[in-house]
Amino acid sequence: MTRITKYVAATAVAAAILAAPATAYASAPAKAPVAEAAGVAKAFHSASAVRVVAPGERVRAMPGVDVWLTPEGKYWSTPEIGEQFRSVVDGNIDTSRPGVSFQAEPVGDRYFLSGLYYGTHRTAAVKVVTAYGTVTAKLVQLPGRPGWGVWYATSALPDSQQFPDTFFRSVTAYDAAGRAITSLPLG
What we know:
This protein is α+β, with helices and mostly antiparallel strands.
C-alpha cells in the first residue's frame, strides 16, 4: 500500500469513528418501574441463562464482533474500532453493590450493545429497553462467583430522526424470579 493510500485509509477510519461514537453509561442499584417489572415477571421464562466461559474464551456476539473475559475485565472487538477493554479491577465499579453498565456501538446495520453486570445478587437476565422495544441480552461470566459478568445484545439502528441519547431508554438486570436487581435509566 502506498503511503498516501495508508494515510487516506487511516483518515477514513478516524472519520467513521468520530461520526458514529460509542455510547457508554454505568449505574448504581435502582428499582425498575412497577409496570415494567410486572411485564418482565410474566415473560421472564424466556430469559437466557448465564454462559460460563474460560478466561480468554472468545464468544461470537454478532458477525465481526467477539466478546471475551479475563479476571481483569471485559474485552470486545468490532470491525470499526478493534479490540477494546473495560476493567473490573481499576476501582470504577463496586462489586459489593448491584449495578450494570452500558455501551452501544454501531456495527454495520445494527447496534452492538454490551456492558457489565455486577454485585451481590445472581443476575439471570439483562434487558435493554429501546424506542423500538425490549431486547433480552445474552450473559457470560467466568467460572465460580466472580461478582460480575458481561451482557451483550444487538438492536436495530434508529431511523434518522432519533439519536442514541433518546433511542436507548434503560438497562435492567433481573434475578431468576424476574425481580429487578438494578436499573440504569438511559434517556
